């Protein structure tokens, strides 16, 4: 049966679980440290509770809402506010370079949002500029936001923050920690939402890194190796490297520096850099 909130249908297919706990909303605002010079992007404003608080503190808000009914409701609710722009679009289809940042400098461009959880990873990958990062590295990527403060499901936050050797550690940890400095801000219980979801939540802050801390020779090869290692987590490093397409000769080169019987998940980012820098092309 369809649930309603403020007389509007709650749409499961759009991942709608509205944050209704005022204390949590205030805590997100406090910990986000937004200022009157900021331009804030909100993904999925919903009924606009977070939006309302953000709008009062910052220079401009740009909010993207896929649900037409919520969008119309928001337009109406905030019709007196001249510093908010709403767009009725799928965030994943939005071209970030087309956003009018109103000449606000990069340091003041932030994302603050309780995002739709069914597309958490694609949202983060879009903000991280995954495609360019994996091809050419951090220094070549387009950077639109200096800070990203988002609420997401606890399990995904744990994977993003994970350190080597844990079961949460994987390619999501590596790409996020490569692109951002990440900090956990708040733990949020599932009862703070309507309807109550199955998962608990975490708010994290991700600061965009501007340049590479590493000298990566071939980005594509490195991410292929990382993928190989984490899609076959239980295999030895030797097998994972084979799966990633390394030649026997290259595997022997790696064996001069690494014990190939360990599992790849024991390696940290700089090890993957080192391994990929040791070898030639992948067949
Ligand atoms: N931020 C609000 C709502 C969270 S629910 C709050 O904290 O209460 C997730 C919101 O994202 C919903 O409003 C949903 O309609 C919207 N949404 C879902 N998919 C989206 C997409 N692809 N692009 C933009 N908004 C989306």
Provide key terms for this protein.
single chain; 283 residues; alpha/beta; Rossmann fold; Helicase, Ruva Protein, domain 3; 2 domains; seven-stranded mixed beta sheet; two-stranded antiparallel ribbon; 11 strands; 36% helix; elongated; binds S-adenosyl-L-homocysteine
H/E element order: EEEHEHEHEEHHEHHEEEHHHH
Q: Structural class, judged by helices and strands?
A: alpha/beta
Low-confidence stretches: none
Number of domains: 2
Q: Any idea of the CATH topology of the largest domain? A: Rossmann fold
Helical content, roughly? 25-40%
Strand numbers in spatial order across the main sheet: 6-5-4-7-8-11-9
Q: Mean of residue pLDDT?
A: 96
- Radius of gyration, rounded? 21 Å
* CA-CA gap between termini: 54 Å
What proportion of the residues form beta strands (DSSP E)? 15-25%
How does the major sheet shape up?
A: 7 strands, mixed
Bound molecules: S-adenosyl-L-homocysteine
For the secondary structure, the number of strands is 11
CATH class label of the largest domain: Alpha Beta
Shape: elongated
Q: What is the number of helical segments per DSSP (H or I, 4+ residues)?
A: 11
| CATH architectural category of the largest domain | 3-Layer(aba) Sandwich
CATH superfamily (homologous) name of the largest domain: Vaccinia Virus protein VP39
How would you explain this protein's 3D organization?
The chain has helices at 22-32, 49-57, 68-77, 120-128, 130-136, 154-161, 171-179, 219-231, 237-243, 248-255, 269-278; strands spanning 4-5, 8-9, 18-19, 39-43, 60-64, 84-87, 109-114, 147-153, 180-188, 193-194, 201-208. The protein is α/β, with parallel strands linked by helices and 283 residues long. It has two domains: 4-208, Rossmann fold; 219-278, Helicase, Ruva Protein, domain 3 (Orthogonal Bundle), CATH 1.10.8. The strands form three sheets. Strands 6-5-4-7-8-11-9 form a seven-stranded mixed sheet, with helices on both faces. Strands 1-2 form a two-stranded antiparallel ribbon. Helix 4 packs parallel to helix 7 (171-179), helix 5 crosses helix 8 and helix 8 packs across helix 11 (269-278). The longest helix has 13 residues, at 219-231. The termini are far apart. Bound molecules: S-adenosyl-L-homocysteine.
């Amino acid at each position: 049966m369809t649930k309603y909130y403020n007389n509007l249908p709650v749409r499961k297919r759009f991942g709608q679980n509205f944050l209704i706990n005022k204390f949590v909303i205030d805590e997100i605002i406090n910990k986000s440290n937004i200022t009157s010079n900021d331009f804030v992007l909100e993904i999925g404003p919903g009924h606009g509770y977070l939006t309302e608080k953000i709008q009062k503190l910052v220079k401009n808000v740009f909010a993207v809402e896929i649900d037409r009914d919520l969008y119309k409701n928001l337009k109406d609710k905030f019709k007196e506010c001249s510093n908010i722009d709403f767009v009725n679009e799928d965030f994943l289809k939005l071209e970030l370079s087309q956003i009018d940042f109103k000449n606000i400098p990069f340091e003041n461009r932030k994302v603050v949002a309780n995002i739709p959880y069914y597309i958490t990873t694609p949202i983060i990958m879009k903000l991280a500029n995954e495609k360019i990062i994996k091809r050419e590295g951090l220094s070549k990527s387009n950077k639109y936001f200096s800070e990203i403060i988002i609420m997401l499901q606890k399990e995904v936050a744990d994977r993003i923050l994970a350190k080597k050797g844990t079961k949460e550690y994987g390619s999501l940890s590596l790409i996020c920690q490569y692109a951002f400095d990440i900090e956990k801000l708040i733990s949020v219980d599932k009862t703070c939402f309507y309807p109550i979801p199955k998962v608990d939540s975490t708010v994290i802050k991700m600061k965009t890194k501007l340049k590479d801390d590493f000298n990566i020779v071939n980005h594509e090869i490195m991410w292929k190796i990382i993928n190989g290692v984490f899609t076959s987590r239980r295999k030895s490093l030797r097998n994972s490297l084979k799966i990633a397409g390394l030649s026997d000769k290259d595997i022997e080169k790696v064996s001069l520096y690494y014990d190939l019987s360990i599992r790849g998940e024991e390696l940290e980012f700089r090890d993957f850099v080192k391994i990929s820098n040791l070898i030639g092309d992948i067949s």
